[in-house]
Design goal:
Layout (H helix, E strand, L loop, with lengths): L1 H16 L9 H11 L8 H18 L4 H29 L5 H15 L3 H25 L12
Keywords: Membrane, Transmembrane, Transmembrane helix
Pfam families: AI-2E_transport
Main location: membrane
Length: 156
């Protein structure tokens, strides 16, 4: 959600300064799709803004303006730095915590649709988090008989 809002704002701001030949088509939609793509680990947002960058490159070459390629590079830099990297390193650790292993998350995204069909792309990661939390909190209590320590928000 946060990445989608950042994408909408950045792509709309980019459109306000770029020439018509290299403007992002449907900037709010592209920003929202970028936010949805952020749910897919590692390659998520890139599957949205790289094709848009390719479309903008075609528009820049077709326009014949020498400065248009610079605007395409500006778009790719903004998309990579402001929309992709900054939320991943500054916002995501506070929202999702750093306890979920990326490899397990990729496994959940791959295995989820195989087991649950189309809904598995959402159910797989949710079940992963539930099972991981179960083994962090309930399983030690069952094994030892001692109640777990109350977790603090800053630990996540």
């Amino acid at each position: 959600l946060v990445t989608g809002i950042i994408g909408i704002v950045v792509f709309s701001a980019y459109n306000s300064i770029s020439p018509a030949a290299v403007q992002v088509p449907f900037a709010p939609l592209v920003g929202a799709l970028t936010g949805a793509g952020s749910l897919i680990p590692v390659v998520g947002m890139k599957i949205v803004y790289f094709p848009v960058g390719a479309i903008l490159t075609v528009g820049a070459v077709a326009s014949g303006q020498a400065t248009a390629i610079g605007y395409v590079l500006l778009f790719l830099i903004l998309a990579f730095v402001v929309v992709d990297t900054i939320p991943d390193f500054l916002i995501r650790p506070y929202v999702s915590g750093n306890r979920t292993h990326v490899g397990l998350l990729m496994f959940a995204y791959i295995l989820g649709p195989i087991v649950f069909g189309a809904y598995g792309i959402f159910l797989g990661p949710i079940l992963l988090v539930l099972v991981a939390q179960f083994f962090r909190t309930v399983a030690p209590y069952v094994a030892t008989g001692e109640p777990p320590d109350q977790s603090k928000l800053y630990e996540y």
